[in-house]
Inverse folding.
C-alpha cells in the first residue's frame, strides 16, 4: 500500500481522496440526518415519555441552541488543535450523545442529551468541510466541496423517510441509535486515511472567544426558556426573569464582542450593508422554515392521521426539488442578480404555507398536501443558492468562510426562536398535540404568521439587496463564488468556504 499523500496534495480521484470525501460525508451526514429525522419522531416521543408540547419544543431547540452558539468556535478549535482531531472528537461526542438520547428514561435526560448533541455537531459540522479544504489539492477542492454538498444533500433528503421507517418499526429511540454505527465507520476511516492539518503562522496564536460563546448560548437559552414556558406559566416570575436575563446577557454579549481583539462574531463585519441585509433576509426565511417543518410534521400525524413513515415521505418533494434544482437556481441567480430570486423565493414559500392551511382532517395528499409542498419547494430552490452566493460576495475573499459560518449560525438561531415562539403566538396549549381539533385550530393561526415573516424577508430583499451584488464594482476584485452548488438542508443555508479566482483558496469557517 502506498504512503498517504501530504496535506494539501491529495488528489480527489485517488483512493485517499475518496476516503477523505467519505469521512467528511459520513460526519456531516450524521448531523444532516439528525436535523430532519427527529421532527418525524416527535409525536411518538411525546406519547412514550408522557410529555407536553414544551418537551417536544425543547427536543428540537436544545440541539439548535448549542449548535448555533458554538459552531463558529468549533471551526476555530479545529484550526488550532488539528482539524482531524477536533472532527473525530465531534463525531465521537455526537454519537455518544445520540446514544444517551436513545436510552433516555425521561424527558429531562433527553433534552440534556440533545444539548450535548449540539456541542458535537458544532465540532463536526465545520470540521467536515475543513478536512476537504485542507487536505485536497487546490485544483480539486471545488469539486470536492461540490461532491460533499451533493452527497450530504442526499442524506438530508432521505432523512425523513428513514426516520419515519424507524419510528414505525423499531421505535423512536432508533432514530438516535442510527448515529452510532455511522460513527463507528467514520472514526477509523478518518484516523487511517485523513492526514492531520492545522492553521500555521500567526493565526495559531489567536485566542478563543469562549466567553462570547458562553454568553451567546446563555442569552439564547434565557429567551428560549421564557418563550417555551409562557403558554403554561403565563406572565409569572418563572417567565419574566429568564426573559430579562436573556436580553441582558445578549447586551453583554454584544459589548464583549465589541471590546475583544479577536471576537467570535466580529461586529465590524455587520457594517457591510449588503452582508447585514442578506443576514436579515436569512433570519426571516429560516425562522419561517423552522416553524413550518416543526409544526407540519405534527399536523400530518396528529390531525391528518399519517403514520411517521407517511409523514416523513410526504415532505420529500421539498428536499428533492432542492437537490435536483439548486445548481440551476444558482446559475440563474448569477444571470439575473440576487435581488429578484431573493424576493420571489420567499413569496413563493409564503404561498406554499398558506396552501398548507387546506391540510386538515381528511386531507388528500395529491390535492392538498403535495401542491403546498411543491410550491414551498419551488420557493426554497429559488432563494437558497442566491442567498449563499450573496453572503459570500458581500465580503472580502479572506472572510468568506467566516461570513458563511455567521450566516449558517444566524439561520439556526432563527429556527430556534421560531420553534420556541410560534406555539405561544399561535395559541398552542401545552397539550395541544394530543387533541386533533385543538392542534388544527392553532395550526391555522401559525401558517399565516410564518407566511408573514417570509413576506417581510421578501420586502427586505427587494429594498436592500442590490441586483449587481454578485458582480464586481469597477476596479474591484471579483466576488467570491459558492462551491456548495447542491443543497437541500431545510434548517440552515450551507456552510461554504467560497472560491477565489486568483488561484488560492480561503480558509474554512473560523471565529
Amino acid at each position: 500500500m502506498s504512503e498517504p499523500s501530504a496535506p494539501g496534495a491529495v488528489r480527489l480521484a485517488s483512493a485517499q481522496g475518496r476516503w477523505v470525501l467519505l469521512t467528511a460525508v459520513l460526519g456531516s451526514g450524521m448531523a444532516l440526518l439528525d436535523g430532519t429525522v427527529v421532527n418525524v419522531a416527535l409525536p411518538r416521543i411525546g406519547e412514550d415519555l408522557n410529555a407536553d408540547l414544551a418537551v417536544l419544543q425543547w427536543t428540537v431547540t436544545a440541539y439548535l441552541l448549542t449548535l448555533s452558539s458554538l459552531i463558529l468556535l468549533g471551526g476555530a478549535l479545529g484550526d488550532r488543535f488539528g482539524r482531524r482531531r477536533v472532527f473525530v472528537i465531534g463525531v465521537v461526542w455526537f454519537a455518544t450523545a445520540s446514544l444517551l438520547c436513545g436510552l433516555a428514561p425521561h424527558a429531562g435526560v433527553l433534552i440534556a442529551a440533545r444539548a450535548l448533541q449540539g456541542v458535537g455537531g458544532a465540532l463536526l459540522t465545520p470540521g467536515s468541510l475543513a478536512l476537504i479544504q485542507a487536505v485536497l489539492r487546490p485544483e480539486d477542492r471545488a469539486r470536492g466541496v461540490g461532491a460533499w454538498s451533493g452527497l450530504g444533500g442526499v442524506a438530508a433528503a432521505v432523512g425523513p423517510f428513514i426516520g419515519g421507517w424507524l419510528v414505525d418499526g423499531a421505535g423512536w429511540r432508533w432514530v438516535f441509535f442510527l448515529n452510532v454505527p455511522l460513527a463507528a465507520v467514520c472514526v477509523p476511516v478518518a484516523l487511517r486515511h485523513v492526514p492531520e492539518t492545522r492553521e500555521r503562522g500567526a493565526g495559531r496564536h489567536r485566542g478563543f472567544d469562549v466567553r462570547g460563546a458562553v454568553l451567546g448560548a446563555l442569552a439564547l437559552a434565557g429567551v428560549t426558556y421564557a418563550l417555551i414556558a409562557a403558554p403554561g406559566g403565563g406572565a409569572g416570575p418563572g417567565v419574566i426573569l429568564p426573559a430579562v436575563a436573556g436580553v441582558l446577557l445578549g447586551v453583554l454579549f454584544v459589548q464583549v464582542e465589541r471590546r475583544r481583539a479577536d471576537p467570535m462574531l466580529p461586529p465590524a463585519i455587520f457594517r457591510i450593508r449588503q452582508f447585514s441585509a442578506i443576514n436579515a433576509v436569512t433570519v426571516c426565511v429560516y425562522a419561517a422554515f423552522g416553524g413550518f417543518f416543526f409544526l407540519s410534521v405534527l399536523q400530518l400525524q396528529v390531525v391528518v392521521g399519517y403514520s411517521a413513515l407517511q409523514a416523513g415521505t410526504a415532505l420529500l418533494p421539498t428536499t428533492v426539488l432542492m437537490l435536483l434544482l439548486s445548481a440551476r437556481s444558482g446559475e440563474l441567480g448569477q444571470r439575473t442578480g440576487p435581488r429578484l430570486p431573493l424576493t420571489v423565493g420567499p413569496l413563493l414559500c409564503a404561498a406554499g404555507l398558506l396552501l398548507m392551511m387546506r391540510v386538515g382532517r381528511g386531507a388528500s395528499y395529491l390535492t392538498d398536501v403535495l401542491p403546498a409542498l411543491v410550491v414551498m419547494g419551488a420557493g426554497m430552490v429559488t432563494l437558497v443558492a442566491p442567498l449563499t452566493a450573496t453572503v459570500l460576495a458581500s465580503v472580502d475573499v479572506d472572510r468568506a468562510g467566516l461570513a458563511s459560518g455567521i450566516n449558517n449560525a444566524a439561520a439556526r438561531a432563527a429556527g430556534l426562536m421560531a420553534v420556541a415562539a410560534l406555539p405561544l403566538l399561535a395559541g398552542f396549549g401545552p397539550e395541544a398535540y394530543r387533541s386533533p381539533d385543538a392542534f388544527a385550530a392553532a395550526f391555522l393561526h401559525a401558517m399565516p404568521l410564518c407566511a408573514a415573516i417570509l413576506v417581510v424577508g421578501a420586502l427586505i430583499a427587494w429594498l436592500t439587496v442590490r441586483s449587481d451584488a454578485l458582480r464586481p464594482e469597477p476596479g474591484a476584485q471579483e466576488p467570491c463564488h459558492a462551491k456548495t452548488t447542491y443543497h437541500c438542508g431545510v434548517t440552515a443555508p450551507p456552510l461554504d468556504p467560497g472560491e477565489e479566482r486568483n488561484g488560492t483558496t480561503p480558509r474554512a469557517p473560523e471565529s
User: Anything to note?
Assistant: The two ends are 38 Å apart (CA to CA).
